[in-house]
Amino acid sequence: AQTVTQSQPEMSVQEAETVTLSCTYDTSESDYYLFWYKQPPSRQMILVIRQEAYKQQNATENRFSVNFQKAAKSFSLKISDSQLGDAAMYFCAYRSKDYGGSQGNLIFGKGTKLSVKP
Amino acid sequence: KAGVTQTPRYLIKTRGQQVTLSCSPISGHRSVSWYQQTPGQGLQFLFEYFSETQRNKGNFPGRFSGRQFSNSRSEMNVSTLELGDSALYLCASSLQPFLPGTSGLEQFFGPGTRLTVL
User: Fold this and answer.
1) Which site in A13, B4, B8, B85 is 20 to 30 Å from A64, CA atoms measured?
2) Alpha-carbon distance B53 to A92, whole Å?
């Protein structure tokens, strides 16, 4: 079965600085999707960024970018120029591309709570 | 376009009771998934519905059930509530269900229903 591990329960960053959140996963599949979701204190989970495993190029969305290391099964999220509104729980998630162990549903890590200091 | 709505937002029940939670997907979305979020277990997949049929089910006891109506609205029911059922229950909708080999369709999450079991 696939698993997702986020080893940093909490992180803190100064406003305007850069922070990297770590995520590792375990799978025997060769093709899959990886996601970073943000859950602000209001609780509405939103998608931050998505990566398809077969794509070599790291995904980027404005100030958010990932470092995808397929061989190492690592998928970290870098937030540049951190803003107060970035404060939230961040979840790394895995989704199979075929009817494998996850059967298409999202498998989440335990999350990293990011605080942004003014 | 309105987002995913969940009702009620907060609920307090006592052990042994049953509860029904409701989820209205984004207009046009036909797939609805449910997740349970607890501090200890994190986010765990409950089930997915499409065209009024359960397509996928997570590893939860039979006390957890759900259904989907012809307008794609979904309900989940928990019978004989236990203290451990206290959680945030999240609903997510997408245009279509997950199909092997297809590009990953984004799931849009609702704000959740906070269930407290006393």
Assistant:
1) B4
2) 28
- Is B85 near chain A, with CB under 8 Å? no
Which residue do the tokens 């996928």 mark? B56
Nearest one of B90, B92, B91 to B107, comparing CA atoms: B92
CA–CA min distance B18, chain A (Å): 24
pLDDT tens digits, one per residue of A34-92 = 999 999 987 789 999 999 888 888 989 999 999 999 999 999 999 999 999 999 999 99
- Judged by CB atoms closer than 8 Å, whether chains meet at B98 and A104 is answered as yes
Give residue B86's identity as a one-letter amino acid code. Answer: S
Q: How far is A68 from chain B (nearest CA, A)?
A: 17
Q: How far apart are the first and last CA of chain A?
A: 41
Is B60 an 8 Å CB contact of chain A? no
- Distance between CA B75 and CA A87 in Å, rounded? 31
> Residue B110, exposed/middle/buried by CB under 10 A (0-12, 13-18, 19+)?
buried
Instruction: Supply the mean pLDDT for chain B.
Output: 92
Of the candidates A79, A108, A106, the residue with the CA atom closest to the CA atom of residue A95? A106
Name the 3-class secondary structure at A28. Answer: coil
Picking from B47, B56, B98, B115 by the largest number of A CB atoms within 10 A of its own CB, the best residue to mutate is B98
pLDDT of residue A29: 86
For residue B47, give the chain A residue with the closest CA: A105
